[in-house]
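Budget justification, computational time. The allocation requested in the original proposal was used primarily to generate structure tokens for proteins on the priority list. As evidence of use, we reproduce two of the resulting records. The first is shown immediately below.
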Amino acid sequence: MDILNFEVLKKEENLTILEWLENFHLSNKTLRDIQANNLLKLNGEIVDFNTKISEYDIISIDISSFEENNFEPFSKELDILYEDEDVLAVNKPRNILVHPDGNTNQTLGNIISNYYLSQGLNRKVRVIQRLDYETTGVIIYPKHYLAHSFLDYELRNQNIKRIYLAICEGKISPRQDTIDKPIGKDRHHNNRYIVYEKGKEARTNYFSLQYKKNYTLVMLSLGTGRTHQIRVHLSHLGHPILGDELYGS
């Protein structure tokens, strides 16, 4: 069994079990599964979801039926930036896929799978965001389905901010702006995207930090999360990311 234990906080006092669970933004099906299979206990006892909770109560949830290692493990060193019982944040190296694509199992997801198993955790590998193969940066892995549901909700509602730094060609003007251009697949090039009138809505905010020797260091944030979005938008402006072989000059 794989049990998570939560101590009820002062601010959560007098909530019902159901109201407490709703803080995780779980689906109705998941809530039904928890209740129908008696996966939740309050202070060691199975209780009705209308039961009110008190400060210092212990809520225990058996997550075993929702968790099973889903990727073939691949052993390679991880650059761990932060970890607790709920999340794992790692630095993704460049030139590695986040998830298996059917052609290789030597991806970050496979490395995470191996790490979980080495820690005695039979957990499903879940991620709330991805980075391109060529991109390095922080990837957050929720370590169980409750954390995944909560963080996914926070990301979709833009309560989690993703900030990117890039060096691009030329001098961007104006210094600060929002690129609001739809993006769609390039029918003439495999795995390439373009600004396309009938594509999906895409918004990228940027701010120029420094210009030197015909290159600009820019800070960017996403209003949407389309594949290759930053690379496509900067290339469309005529300022592709330095070294971008797919969208660069």
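The second record produced under the same allocation is shown here.
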Amino acid sequence: MKQTPYPAPLFTLPASDGKVYSLDELKGTWVVLYVYPKDETPGCTIEACSFRDAHTEILKRRAVLLGLSMDDEKSHKAFESKHNLPFPLLSDATGDIIKKYDAWGKKIFGKEGILRRTYIINPSGEVVKVYGRVTPLGHGQQVIDELDTLQR
């Protein structure tokens, strides 16, 4: 992983709420971007629900929360609806953005795929924190605590 801080790779991607999100348009705002392997898998559901439960506190810290995977918007919408997720899920169908964020690589048993990672991006557009090994349960609170530290 790269040494922080570094410029966050730009993206413009469709989301579960029908909007298109651009990192460039979010400059001036804290962004929490969490990359996860697949909608409706056990670990990803636990992580999404952890962020759901932490969402109000993340907003209080003037941060935007975005999920990102290769699932399409239809899958994201169903996942979002089933688990009452109050934040958008971005769709990177080609995996290009996921790769630019270094969230693609060897997984268990040598198979390649999406690595569960979370990035905190400051209002200047720099990645200031990377969680390279994410434990899904309680990760939302971990991010809240880090935002508190970074915003002091």
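A brief technical remark on that second record: The radius of gyration is 14 Å.
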